[in-house]
Design a protein that fits this description.
Radius of gyration: 24 Å
Strand content: 35-45%
Number of helices: 1
Distance between the termini: 27 Å
Structural class: mainly beta
Shape: elongated
Length: about 425
């Protein structure tokens, strides 16, 4: 039995098995099925990157944070072979000497590279990647401060038809982005993520202005925010380079002699045992969008196995979050509002009480829709991080999911509203 304000089913990231995401409240049969037909990396609580086997979910940690989240990512391909071995011939070295196995890398192995300037000037390791016109490109690399404390990434349309180039500088001493002002023809966005032992993942995002080969460069000679020309004593540590054609910079994908693809994460068929015993219910989610989709939606659905559901879907347009309730094939609720990519959000949707639907976001009631028809007791019985037909999968970070039977609260409707305002705060 459960207390009157306890959820009947709850998922908080804390455990995993192959093909299996367990719930913390509910029956074991309420688990989510999980699928990802490749290995993938996650960051552990101790900060190290580790490889997770095929079909094993990833509970990922932010830097120096004790609370994990379920990481669900779209398919992505690292277009840079030998991502951890800059001494390989696929990397063209311009005025650099490379020493491998020089320093402990972010995965805990001694595979970090030392990129040392061997002649004065702008010095880098480079490889060509194929980008797509008008689509976002993500260039990233793990770096650790050398002599100057600065680092840079560059991606150049070196073979035409344009002469555009994206350039971003990074301050590895203070863990801050520098500037993208050295760029021409494109306007990159820069970000930086801290890792253990002074490592940072430096990320440059820009929209490609032509399709075809661009030259991605790992620059070891940066001296300051705007000076990329170094002397023969300069060096930087680097590891784990990545180039993607993607709306978001996804988790690092190691490569060997060829480019490597990590397939998408899928979490489906939750709540297959427990059903809502009443027509009055509430769904709570704590989540973070990692990017807006170019087209289509990223979707979370509580449903009946058919065409009746409570659906939360993210689009790439204004009003980027849509809550839909469909009962007996008729849309009773369809409302839009905005949330920010990269922001951790707390959302609750309640339905059935006084034939009303209420939506709460980050401590406030933002929508009241009435009157609406509602579901029969026991009708909603499946949960997907996708649509009811297991398409348009959700990708992002999931911190918490709970399903409530509001009839069991035995409270006045105003008190229930206060409960969800507090829960989402």
């Amino acid at each position: 039995m459960y207390n009157k304000t306890n959820p009947i089913v709850a998922y908080v990231p804390g455990g995993y098995k192959p093909n299996f995401i367990p719930v913390v409240i509910g029956r074991e049969q309420d688990h989510f099925d999980f699928d990802r037909n490749t290995t993938a990396l996650r960051r552990q609580k101790d900060g190290l990157l580790v490889e997770m086997p095929i079909d094993v979910p990833r509970l990922n940690y932010q830097y120096k944070n004790n609370c994990p989240y379920l990481l669900l990512e779209p398919q992505a391909t690292n277009l840079l072979p030998y991502s951890e071995q800059f001494n390989q011939s696929s990397w063209t070295k311009t005025g650099l000497s490379i020493t491998t196995t020089e320093i402990i890398a972010p995965d805990g192995n001694k595979t970090g590279n030392k990129l040392k300037v061997s002649s004065s000037g702008k010095r880098y390791a480079a490889d060509n990647v194929t980008l797509v016109n008008n689509e976002k490109a993500q260039i990233s690399c793990f770096a650790k401060a050398g002599l100057s404390g600065w680092f840079a990434l560059e991606c150049v349309d070196a073979f035409g038809p344009t002469t555009d180039e994206a350039i971003g500088t990074f301050d590895l001493v203070n863990g801050k982005v520098g500037t993208a002002a050295l760029s021409q023809g494109v306007t990159p966005e820069l970000s930086i993520e801290p890792y253990n032992n002074g490592w940072y993942r430096c990320i440059m995002t820009f929209t490609a202005t032509s399709s075809g080969a661009w030259n991605a460069r790992i620059i070891a000679s940066a001296q300051s925010e705007t000076d990329l020309s170094g002397g023969t004593q300069d060096f930087v540590y680097a590891w784990g380079a990545q180039a993607e054609v993607s709306q978001e910079c996804t988790s690092y994908i190691p490569t060997g002699a060829t480019i490597t693809t990590r397939v998408s994460d899928k979490a489906l068929n939750g709540l297959s045992y427990t059903t809502l015993p009443s027509a009055e219910a509430g769904l709570y989610l704590e989540f973070e969008h990692t990017a807006d989709p170019i087209s289509g939606f990223r979707t979370i659905t509580l449903h009946n196995g058919s065409n009746d559901f409570v659906k939360i879907q993210q689009s790439g347009s204004a009003g980027n979050l849509n809550v839909i309730i469909k009962v007996k094939g008729t849309t009773e609720v369809s409302t839009f509002f905005d949330i920010l990519v990269g922001q951790r959000n707390k959302l609750a949707v309640t339905w059935g009480i006084n034939r009303e639907c209420r939506i709460f976001l980050n401590g406030e009631q933002i929508q009241l829709i009435k009157p609406i028809n509602t579901f029969l007791p026991g009708e909603l019985r499946l949960f997907n991080f996708a649509t009811e037909s297991q398409t348009l999968n959700y990708y992002g970070k999931i911190y918490d999911m709970r399903l409530y039977d509001l009839f069991a609260f035995n409270m006045a409707s105003d008190d229930i509203n206060t409960f969800f305002e507090t829960l989402t705060n």
